[in-house]
């Protein structure tokens, strides 16, 4: 072979590898590329094995490995696959953070955010899924603290966690920011705590916490929506008839569904659980988690409550 027995100067190594002379000299000074020999004048010379070693160093550095990692590979203290696997993990995390940063910047442009909001968005976006879930668990723990509640019902409530994809859209990021602000809002927390207290009080009284049987609620809402879409006012005969059916179906033993007092009581219970912010809570979760959109039911609920009160 033409290279057998031949040695190279640092300048020749630079021309063959495309690396700057300064970089090669640095590698040599750090012990990564010890010279094969020196000339009588003290200039370093490198053989063909050094050339191959330098090509390996160049490749490893281009892949992002640090000098310590490169040194361990050259000393056979660690294999390339071992360090590559660790580096892949680090790169994946770096890519995730870059994607989140890009999403934050896109949301900032879209919302024309002020500096304080930018700071908040960046902080919230940097949270992991585990941190987001913990924040929500703490919210629900406070909302039910000291109360005897239906574990199955609240289990369903708390099982839905906000999970952002690695590359969230500006809408998903905005939804998370709004969601985090919502569950931190004292007014909303007061509303949800009140719902939990009424839920617990109903259980203690031996009553159904839900004013309307959950399995029947979608049907009543669909029928109310048809009336609303048809332009029927809540005080029309058709609306009053529908309200009467609902009240009689929901009346517990010993209560008269046709009693105006019971209807008002039922209307108040439905109304107290129909806070728009509670609905927004689930709409934001749907945006973040990529679920089908959840259309608002507020107009229909308001119409139905008004029909009961008519």
Q: How is this structure best described in words?
A:
The protein is an all-alpha fold and 310 residues long. It has 3 domains: 7-78, Multidrug-efflux Transporter Regulator, Chain: A, Domain 2, CATH 1.10.1660; 94-201, no CATH class; 210-309, no CATH class. The chain has helices at 10-17, 21-29, 48-62, 67-74, 80-111, 115-125, 129-144, 151-159, 170-184, 186-204, 217-229, 237-250, 260-272, 276-289, 298-309; strands at 7-8, 37-38, 44-47. The chain has a 3-stranded antiparallel sheet with strand order 1-3-2. Helix 5 runs antiparallel to helix 6 (115-125), helix 5 crosses helix 9 and helix 12 (237-250) packs across helix 15 (298-309). The chain is rod-shaped, with a radius of gyration of 34 Å.
Number of helices: 15
Main sheet attributes: strand count, strand direction, barrel closure: 3 strands, antiparallel
Structural class: mainly alpha
Question: Rg, please?
Answer: 34 Å
Q: What is the helix fraction of residues, given as a range?
A: 55-70%
Please write the string of helix (H) and strand (E) elements: EHHEEHHHHHHHHHHHHH
Q: Quick check: average pLDDT?
A: 87
Distance between the termini: 101 Å
Q: Please indicate the percent range of residues in DSSP E strands (runs of 2 or more).
A: under 5%
Model regions low in confidence, pLDDT < 50 over at least 5 residues: none
Number of strands: 3
* Spatial sequence of strands, sheet with the most strands: 1-3-2
Using the alpha-carbon principal axes, give the shape. rod-shaped
Our count of domains comes out at 3
């Amino acid at each position: 072979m033409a290279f057998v027995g031949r040695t190279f100067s640092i300048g020749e190594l630079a021309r063959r590898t495309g690396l700057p002379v300064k970089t090669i000299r640095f590698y040599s000074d750090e012990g990564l590329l010890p010279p094969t020999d020196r000339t009588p004048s003290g200039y370093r010379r490198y053989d063909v094995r050094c050339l191959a070693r330098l090509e390996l160093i160049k490749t490893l550095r281009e892949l992002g490995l640090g000098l310590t990692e490169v040194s361990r590979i050259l000393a056979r203290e660690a294999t390339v696959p071992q360090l590559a696997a660790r580096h892949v993990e680090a790169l994946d995390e770096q890519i995730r953070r870059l994607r989140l940063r890009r999403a934050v910047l896109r949301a900032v442009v879209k919302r024309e955010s002020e500096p304080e909001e930018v700071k908040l968005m960046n902080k919230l976006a940097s949270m992991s899924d585990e941190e987001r879930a913990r924040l929500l668990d703490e919210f629900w723990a406070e909302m039910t603290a000291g109360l005897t509640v239906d574990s199955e019902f609240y289990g369903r409530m708390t099982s839905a966690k906000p999970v952002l994809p690695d590359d969230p859209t500006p809408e998903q990021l905005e939804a998370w920011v709004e969601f985090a602000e919502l569950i931190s809002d004292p007014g909303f927390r007061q509303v949800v705590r009140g719902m939990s207290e009424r839920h617990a009080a109903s259980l203690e009284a031996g009553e159904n916490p839900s004013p309307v049987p959950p399995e029947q609620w979608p049907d009543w809402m669909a029928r109310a929506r048809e009336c609303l879409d048809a332009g029927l006012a809540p005080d029309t005969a058709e609306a009053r008839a529908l309200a009467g059916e609902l009240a009689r179906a929901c009346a517990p033993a010993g209560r008269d569904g046709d009693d105006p007092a019971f209807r008002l009581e039922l209307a108040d219970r439905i109304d107290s659980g129909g806070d728009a912010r509670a609905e927004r809570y689930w709409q934001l979760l749907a945006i973040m988690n990529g679920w089908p959109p959840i259309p608002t039911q507020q107009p229909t609920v308001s119409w139905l409550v008004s029909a009961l009160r008519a």
